[in-house]
Amino acid sequence: MGYGIFRRMISSLITGVKYIQNQPSVKGRQGESVVSRTLRQCCSSEHDHLLNNILLFDAHTGRSSQVDHILICSNGIFVIETKNYSGIIYGNDLQHEWTQILAYGNTKNKLHSPVKQNATHIYLVKQILQNKYPVHGFVVFVKNNIAHIQSGSVCTPQTLPACIEAFKPVNGTLTDDDKDAIFRRLCLHQESYAVTPREHLDHNRKLQTDLKNDICPRCGGKLLLRKGKYGKFYGCSNYPSCKFTKSIKD
């Protein structure tokens, strides 16, 4: 084999590896691995539990949600969404769409708000636990590009442990029995409602269709036109038990 052919083979191999590494699914798993290791450090006793990459099914709406991480510790139950986005990200808690800027401003992408996405996951976990425990959430940006995000629930892997540690439960910390019971409940739910990846994709397509038809993606209620402090919006008919909202332009 000639040296030139060998160099081309190596170059093609490196290009292929870089292509695979840059695929969204691969980058997402890499980010989740980083956050999982960080959350594992927050488990200080055998009664603290961490669930990674689990599919939860909502029996009321027939939809499933893929949750990156659920941490059960003394300070509470934390639903964690991991994002491995590149570029500059703009967004806040009120916006349903955030903006991603790439290539020195030459490319702009619209992103569904990860805070709103995680709020739906939090709502589902609360339903599974029959609203017996408060559930909280954080969105972790692995690339630390949160300078232009205005949200108290967004952090980086480096600041995540401090955010969880600083959280002060209103009704006191969870007992060891509480933590074990919550863990068993979530595991039992996952076993009882096993969802395949294909079924999850079908559920996501149904969710998008429901949104277009003004059906709440969290509880299946009707989205009604309402008027609030910042103008008109669509709110769930099951408010206040469900606080999902959709902007007029969505």
Describe the fold and architecture.
The chain has 250 residues and is α/β, with parallel strands linked by helices. It has two domains: 181 residues, no CATH class; 37 residues. 36% of the residues lie in helices and 29% in strands. The protein contains six helices and twelve strands. The strands form three sheets. A five-stranded mixed β-sheet has the order 1-2-3-7-9, with helices on both faces. The chain has a four-stranded mixed β-sheet with strand order 6-5-4-8. The protein is globular and about 65 Å long. About 3% of the residues have low confidence.
Mean pLDDT: 85
Number of domains: 2
Strand arrangement in the largest pleated sheet:
1-2-3-7-9
Number of strands: 12
Low-confidence stretches: 15-22
Distance, first to last CA? 58 Å
Biggest sheet, in brief?
A: 5 strands, mixed
Chain oligomer state:
single chain
Helix residue percentage:
25-40%
Shape: globular
Number of helices in the DSSP assignment: 6
- Our Rg estimate from Cα atoms comes to 20 Å
Helix-and-strand structural type: alpha/beta
N-to-C SSE string, H for helix and E for strand: HHEEEEEEHEEEHHHEEE
Strand residue percentage: 25-35%
Q: Features of this protein?
A:
250 residues; alpha/beta; 2 domains; five-stranded mixed β-sheet; 6 helices
List the helices and strands and how they pair.
Elements (H helix, E strand, L loop, with lengths): L2 H19 L2 H17 L8 E10 L4 E11 L2 E8 L4 E5 L4 E6 L4 E6 L1 H15 L6 E7 L7 E2 L3 E2 L4 H7 L9 H17 L4 H16 L10 E6 L2 E6 L8 E3 L3
Parallel strand pairs: 3-7, 4-8, 7-9
Antiparallel strand pairs: 1-2, 2-3, 4-5, 5-6, 10-11, 11-12
